[in-house]
Amino acid sequence: MSNEKFEKKLAIRRDFVPKVADKQGVENRTGARQTTFMSSTLEQKDIISKQNCPWPPHDLIGREPLNRTLFDPKTLSTVFGFMKKGHFKPQNCSPYQKIAVVVPVRDREPQLRIFLNNFIPRIYRQQLEFTIYVVEQTPGNLFNKGMLINTGFIEAMKDMKYDCIVIHDVDILAEDDRILYTCGDNPAQLSTKIQKYGYRIPYERYFGGIVIFSTEQFEAINGCPNQFFGWGGADDELSSRVRRVHYNLSRPFHQYGHCGSVQHQKATRGTDRYKILRISESIWKKDGLFDLFDHAYTILEKQRKPLYVWIYRDIDMKKVRQKMVSYIHKGGKVHK
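The line above is the sequence of Beta-1,4-galactosyltransferase; the predicted structure tokens follow.
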């Protein structure tokens, strides 16, 4: 099947179709690498020996039901032996983009195994270079999704200059490999038909499940909020940040956005999430990615396992909230 016919079949939006590059290789305004044979980022020996991986990918299957079998980690490592220390790079071609996949978790070991067994083969068929970062919070304080994501981003960028960051809930998994894990001119939600919501999204401004940014976009919105403890609120604030920076929220693969849901025990809700949402409108430029180190940034362990990089960190809720108070005292207006 030709690339032209395949693009029509995928119904990819224009800002996600690779753009024509000149002979020297260029970057679009998000910094995402363009498809071109000559790339300034490649060494001369790679330019001679490697061509770009086909884009759109040629070996996609389409929609398949999730495999919910609980395989042990050793079996998964054997099946996906092409993964090395949580990382994969195509050997015979130059990948279109480099992707950091950040998965925030706590007490989700069975769900993580199901995630790995379904996510890895689908993104593998897309011939992208990617690393999976599983960021786990210690017991004690309420779960802080936003700060775990920010932690994963910072640690990932220490390892490699990625083009894109995928923020991926461990319990929402793509059923269709035509959901391409690539970033474009706007932040994008890839999970648009979610099983637990009747294969739809719960409300129009919902921006959770599986979302993707270019690294520049994620920095422009100051990453995720750090102030949401407990379930709820963080995804809504992330959506608001996208709009405040005047990006459009894109859903480029809506036709193929079917995502299965993996059951788990419900997390504790954040009782003050609506209050924090009101406050975030005033402090979002201060609270987020760039001030993470001021929030008792403590990584207890960073371990490179066969299928993912495991980051274990502690979060001091008292110190995080003290920081929020300092933002307000320095001039932030709180909307009651």
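Note on the example: Confidence is low (pLDDT under 50) at residues 1-48, 332-336. DSSP finds nine helices and 13 strands in the chain.
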